[in-house]
Structure formats: structure tokens, C-alpha cells
Amino acid sequence: MRIALLEDEHEQAQHVQQILADQGHPCDSFPTGQAFISAALHRSYDLMILDWQIPDMTGLDVLRDIRSQLNWPVPVVFLTQRDSEQDIVQALDAGADDYLAKPARPAELIARINALARRSNPDADKEELHYGPFVVNTSRRTITLHGELLTLTDKDFDLTLFLFQNQGRLLTREMLLERVWGLTRDINTRTVDTHMSRLRRRLGLNPDNGFRIKTIYQRGYRLESMSEATAEEEPTTA
């Protein structure tokens, strides 16, 4: 999991980052709310950890901003010195998924993160996944469309599964390279663009089959269900 951390105290940020790194979770740390929000809207994170008291705004303000602008429910955990019942209730009511008091206890923090990961991806252990007319068999590594077996490479399968599992979420090219190709160094992201173009054709990802891959200019891609996309695009009437 790639995690974003909002923490203005350098030593505390390093402590949390080390806990996460020990479990294989890369973590980007930000000391201000504005820097955190900017990164959250332009990068792809699996989970976010927020402090409450930061220099330019409150963690609660950051949470509300993130919830109003992101188009998918990224799990959010508060990690803060404020531990009154009123603070906890306020954060949870604003959209936080969990709340922990400082200092971070490594085993508890990781356990709660793992629990949130399971809740956010309940289909992770299923062998057969259904997405409209598409059926993905994770054991056989096959995908059918309207019952017809599609001809895909291993990388096509990995990319398709990742798209379906993150439906509606902005996926940056860098994240796709890291998660699907296992590449973390800086390389030409045209690799992703080439595969996306080919995948649209091979899978029949078009409105007739209920899904589309939308290109988000200078940011990445998002797999959208046409029913949800149409609902968002329809003008409201008084």
C-alpha cells in the first residue's frame, strides 16, 4: 500500500514512516495541509494518515477537503495527540475511518491499517469476480466478456484486474508502473499509455459493455462504470 502522511513534526513523521516501511508500505510525508491536499489530488494513495494540529489548517479541514474532491472513498486514519471523545466523534462524523492517539504503537497501527485494507477491498480473496458482462477468474488468470474468453497477455490481465479493483479511482501512470510492472524508478511512462490504448481494444472497454477507461489529462487514467458516469454527467433539473 502507498500511504500519505500529514505530520508537521519531523521526528514523528520519520517514526511513522519507519513503522510502515518495515511492513513494505511506502509512505510520503507532508508537513502542511496544502501540500498534503495537492499531493492527494494528483497522486494515488491507498490510505491516508492525518494529524489534527498542523500549521496552516486542521487535519479536520484537510479531511473534509479530501472527501469533497476525491471521487473514491480512500481510507483515512487520524493519528493525533487529541484524544477526547468529542474529537474522535467529530473526526469520524467528518469521514475518518479510524482514530488513534499518539504515540503510534507499531503493532496496533499496522493492524488497523490492514483491517482498513481488507474492508476497502472485500473481494481480494475471491477466485471469481463479476464486473457487468466481464468475469475475472483470478486463479486461472482469465477474463471473459459475455461468456467469450478474451485473449490477453499476463500483463494485460494484471492491468485489467487492477483497474477493476480500483474502479472509479484516479490511477497515475507512476502508480500503474509500480503496481502492475513492479517499477519504481523513473522511466518513460509511455509504456502505460501504449498498454491502455491496446487494452481498450482487446477488452472492449466501451459504453456498450458498461465501462470506459477515461484519460485524465497529465495525471493518469480512471476506469468508470457507464451507469455512474452517465448519472454524474446528466444535468439536474429543478
Automatic annotation (TrEMBL):
<dbReference type="InterPro" id="IPR001867">
    <property type="entry name" value="OmpR/PhoB-type_DNA-bd"/>
</dbReference>
<keyword id="KW-0238">DNA-binding</keyword>
<dbReference type="GO" id="GO:0006355">
    <property type="term" value="P:regulation of DNA-templated transcription"/>
</dbReference>
<keyword id="KW-0902">Two-component regulatory system</keyword>
<feature type="domain" description="OmpR/PhoB-type">
    <location>
        <begin position="126"/>
        <end position="225"/>
    </location>
</feature>
<feature type="domain" description="Response regulatory">
    <location>
        <begin position="2"/>
        <end position="117"/>
    </location>
</feature>
<dbReference type="Pfam" id="PF00072">
    <property type="entry name" value="Response_reg"/>
</dbReference>
<dbReference type="GO" id="GO:0032993">
    <property type="term" value="C:protein-DNA complex"/>
</dbReference>
<dbReference type="Pfam" id="PF00486">
    <property type="entry name" value="Trans_reg_C"/>
</dbReference>
<dbReference type="InterPro" id="IPR039420">
    <property type="entry name" value="WalR-like"/>
</dbReference>
<keyword id="KW-0597">Phosphoprotein</keyword>
<dbReference type="InterPro" id="IPR016032">
    <property type="entry name" value="Sig_transdc_resp-reg_C-effctor"/>
</dbReference>
<dbReference type="GO" id="GO:0005829">
    <property type="term" value="C:cytosol"/>
</dbReference>
<feature type="modified residue" description="4-aspartylphosphate">
    <location>
        <position position="51"/>
    </location>
</feature>
<dbReference type="InterPro" id="IPR036388">
    <property type="entry name" value="WH-like_DNA-bd_sf"/>
</dbReference>
<dbReference type="InterPro" id="IPR011006">
    <property type="entry name" value="CheY-like_superfamily"/>
</dbReference>
<dbReference type="InterPro" id="IPR001789">
    <property type="entry name" value="Sig_transdc_resp-reg_receiver"/>
</dbReference>
<feature type="DNA-binding region" description="OmpR/PhoB-type">
    <location>
        <begin position="126"/>
        <end position="225"/>
    </location>
</feature>
<dbReference type="GO" id="GO:0000156">
    <property type="term" value="F:phosphorelay response regulator activity"/>
</dbReference>
<dbReference type="GO" id="GO:0000976">
    <property type="term" value="F:transcription cis-regulatory region binding"/>
</dbReference>
<protein>
    <submittedName>
        <fullName>DNA-binding response regulator, OmpR family, contains REC and winged-helix (WHTH) domain</fullName>
    </submittedName>
</protein>
